[in-house]
Specification:
homotrimer; alpha/beta
Chain lengths: 461, 461, 461
């Protein structure tokens, strides 16, 4: 079942103008080590099922034990083939979800499989994938090239040594794999390893961890190291977009007590919110584009968290308020043309109510594409419906796949391009603009806007 | 005007595959006494207009006095024919609302009336209905059979003696009318008769009302009595989905003070929230499916409430947060496969933001169908648009009509089936799946999902 | 590009039935002095670009300095032609926004310009407009007549002397330009000039500013003066719909301290909320329709506010709760048939969740049309989709253009009529009603509902 076969003629014309564009992937969670080592990927279950929280959360919701999928520190891991069979037996659960679309696309376009996944075909599909993975054409670098990827950003903790990125650069391979600076662990005093990681970072930069100034300097040094490794952006994953601007003595005092683990939750939020504004100010200086992913309540299932750790499918979006929480940050640097801030929301009510009005005013602000649960055909339609009339197209940041499922990258960009084509065809059908504008906007949403938003045109690999 | 005549060919094929399915009605507010006594229904105004808050609220909003509809303890009740005429004169107010669709469907399919209701036809339609109601074919049991109802759940206070249900069972009539356990009156210390009803319940079960343990035992006994009378589910109507888990001593202390009417509002909420978790735990034990209807602020018009009491059309939905309020309950029993929780919301923003992500993770959780103001064609379309991509179809609980308007039951299920057909046809039109999957999902949403969610397959009448 | 050329046949039939209806404009921000003096409008940039916050906010968001648009007290104002060229160079930013639709419509239908605005055509278009503005046909009164305006309401501070309105009345010109009573400045103790303006108002009415009773009397006197000048409505712009009803001594005490500037923010909100209820009570007495525009957080960009003042494009909508904040007011006067309250929201989630249920119950309440960011084709579609099923059509207040851009008035009403036609055609396509009902509802939404809601039928010019 191919979605593009169902497009109207108008939409198909737009889609065909962008279908084969290169893939610009400015935000995601692939492992740079894949491209450094260029080893073969593991078996089909370990590659496709086990790491994909879209898949195992749904299976879990309908009664599949995570252990049976090979998740958790089980001493007797299940046979990957059995995991794949179990997955195939429940494949009908995914009808109507983007996972169904993505995986069908991956099977067909990456592995050349035209069969529908079910109990009868599971073994044959498993074998086909397994055989492919053993060939040179399915090594990470070969797939990167075959997928037409122009640039792929990873997401890396502030303390990461970026060795994999350096190894890729030193290898002479022309692929562009760039890191993204993700400093939440050393900004949020409620983070599990805040004190340890801050001390390591500041000491590593030759500073005194007890000095707030040295802490800021160490952060600047890490940002510089990321930029030297090709980074063009930073990223923050925060529960609520809450920012502050404190006077220096107050910030330093909170820092000192934070290092001792002595902050109350409210104080920790204030410090973190202040540091987000500090990060924005550093972005003005060094040009790193700032990303805010806000609105997920993490690890809401304590039993699952205790047994399996974070990212196990129990993160639930929260009602989010972008204004006034973002105002302290915006009122420090939001009028500065050197600054770019890209906001991602899990609360779709903020598209029309807050983000589009804000992006249609603040010079710094761009709206990120539909994120996570909303990265889907209907989610994309709602996004365009609700942001464009107030923010226009030029205040959007294009697409990112935001995935750790490398095989699904072409599928995700394809669904976005289908969604773009359907939206623009609908606009044409209402007389909002004609085909020339539609194709121009489509090209921009496909690649141009992401390159521009993430400043990927000016820094080369 | 028949809605089904306007379906696309694709949608019509799906609709016709489910149009004549039996009616599974697992949640609603019909009076079991109707089926116990099997008396004729009252006149058309008393049957159709007076008990339907969808109708009289709209009439009231545009200037009709409730007294003129025969509502309230008026000493001189209006002539039913005049009530019906008054209603007919304002029938245009309902254009575009589901009431218009439901009542047209009822007129045509239940009473064989093809005329449009207006001032000129009011008397003729009244006479037609009045004449029909006098015939054996329009007695409650005959209509139940003619409507093709497979099971009909009523909603009954915890202290109900279930005499009507026993009478139906003893009568030998094969209709399946089952009760639903609705204990809010004995759980919420802010309820008007909490102390009285708790004392009655606990004493009636042979316990000491001053003992928290006896209170819990009495609740267990009532649940058992409901199960013995055929119940498969409980139901809660709560303003906000707020749950807690207290240590036993704390809960017992709140109970003791609650019995004395001595709890502050906040304390009462905590006790009620704790008892919701207790109810969930009892559901694990006894298998009653738990329903949560959350998000209505009740009786907001104090003048109307003082004169006419509750349920007079002044209940207004509230912004609702399902997460984190439900976490204490879910973290007690949400991973237990014996437990089913069905959540109904009046805040559509929670479909995509909270309920679909939660249902797509927690094994216990299913999303109830569009409820109350959202049980409508556009409401159904928004529901599918926002829940399916994240929760799939298998985390949905099918349909319930939730009505006290018995005559409208076929109409309400028909509108749902139209909405299902339109949604699935749209999915097919995008290439999401083909006709075989569409019809299979349609059959499930029409009857199968409700039977499964409410465990109606395993317990017979 | 004409939008109406893209309507379906069904929609076009509806649209053509209302396209040429007169324009009823019961709420907006045109300057009555235009019609009093009937001078020519200024140059194209000053007329079209500079006063339109929809335009300059978007330009600012993509890097255009407000000073370069002639905004702010610059000592060297830019040449209007250069402003227009700068605007033309950025015209592509507006693709997909209602501004694009409105301005294209204005160019074509007001000025006869068929060219697309861009760098190459900017001067020619500028010259065409400039030449037109010099002719008698483009004077304010002539345009009012050519636009087919039946009535145009301005918005005027409580202390306004209404001289322009009196001058229009005295001129013998038959145009109906009526004021609207906007008393927020003398109701909100947090307002910049509250004390000064209250003192002026009360003294001007012959009262003692230190007397709360005299304050109320002065407000009554101002309302009477507005009614005498033709006003049929009042208007409030509030951040949150929060109302109260205090006992008189408490209200008087807050008033006394408010005059001294001594109220804390929370106290000021309570006083303001109480005064909203007072205004509602005065509306019961004098018949002025009460409008509430709620939900904008004003002046969020402090740098812009400090340099340019208010209304500079940095007002951002807030999540809004209509219930329970409005209950104190509604419970005082909401059941009184003499009272009409029209509610406008910037939080679209309140359409289906709060405003439609409330309007479908309270006799006083009507829902205002999509406002500000939501006055757009997609915004109109969402509005109808979410309000009609619960509130019907008769609880809607028709349309208002709410603009200070006089030239855009025909365009805005035209977009509304297109949106109405599209919505009603969609309803017909589903079988909700037939063409006779559709055209009747369309006529009502085009003009009748606004006349009725604002009581414009009974008071003549």
């Amino acid at each position: 079942m191919s979605l593009s076969a169902h497009l109207s003629n108008t939409a198909r014309d737009i889609y065909e103008a962008i279908r084969d564009d290169p893939i610009v992937s400015p935000h995601g969670h692939c492992d740079p080590q894949w491209f450094a080592a260029n080893d073969r990927f593991a078996d089909p279950a370990t590659l496709i099922v086990k790491p994909d929280h879209y898949l195992f959360r749904m299976l879990y919701s309908r009664g599949v034990a995570l252990e049976d999928l090979g998740i958790g520190n089980s001493e007797n891991p299940p046979d990957p083939r059995n995991v794949f069979r179990l997955f195939a037996r429940h494949w009908h659960l995914f009808l109507g979800t983007p996972s169904h679309v993505w995986l069908n696309h991956t099977f067909r376009h990456v592995f050349g499989i035209d069969e529908t996944l079910n109990v009868a075909t599971a073994d044959r599909i498993y074998d086909t994938i397994e055989a492919a993975l053993g060939t040179p054409e399915f090594r990470p670098r070969a797939l990167y090239e075959r997928f037409g990827i122009e640039v792929l950003a990873t997401t890396d903790a502030a303390g990461d040594d970026l060795a994999a990125h350096r190894q890729i650069a030193a290898s002479g391979w022309p692929g562009r794999i760039i890191p993204t600076f993700r400093p939440d662990g050393v900004l949020d005093p409620m983070g599990a390893n805040f004190t340890r990681d801050v001390r390591t970072m500041v000491s590593g930069a030759g500073g005194d961890p007890n000095s707030f100034d040295d802490y800021l300097s160490a952060l600047r040094a890490r940002r510089a190291a990321f930029r030297a490794a090709g980074a063009t952006a930073s990223d923050h994953a925060i529960e609520a977009p809450e920012t502050y601007w404190l006077d220096p003595a107050k910030a330093a005092a909170l820092y000192a007590r934070g290092l001792e683990g002595a902050l109350a939750r409210d104080e920790a939020r204030v410090f973190y919110g202040h540091m987000l504004t500090e990060m924005a100010q550093m972005s003005v200086e060094d040009g790193l584009v700032m990303q805010l992913h806000a609105g997920a309540r993490r690890n809401t299932n304590s039993g699952i968290y205790d047994r399996f750790g974070p990212d196990m499918g129990a993160d639930i979006p929260l009602a989010t308020r972008w204004s006034p929480g973002l105002e302290p940050l915006l009122n420090r640097v939001g009028n500065d043309h050197r600054f770019t801030l890209i906001a991602f929301t899990l609360d779709e009510t903020t598209y029309a109510r807050e983000l589009a009005p804000m992006a249609g005013h603040w010079p710094c602000l761009l709206i990120g594409p539909p994120w996570w649960f909303h990265d889907s055909l209907a989610g994309i339609a709602r996004y365009f419906d609700q942001v464009v009339e107030t923010a226009g197209y030029q205040n959007l940041a294009g697409f990112n796949d935001d995935t750790r499922a490398f095989m699904s990258i072409p599928a995700r960009h394809d669904v976005w391009r289908l969604g773009v084509a359907e939206h623009l065809a609908r606009q044409m059908g209402r007389g909002i603009f004609g085909p020339a504008d539609a194709v121009r906007i489509a090209k921009d949403l496909s690649t141009g806007a992401a390159r521009r938003a993430y400043r990927l045109e000016t820094s080369g690999s």
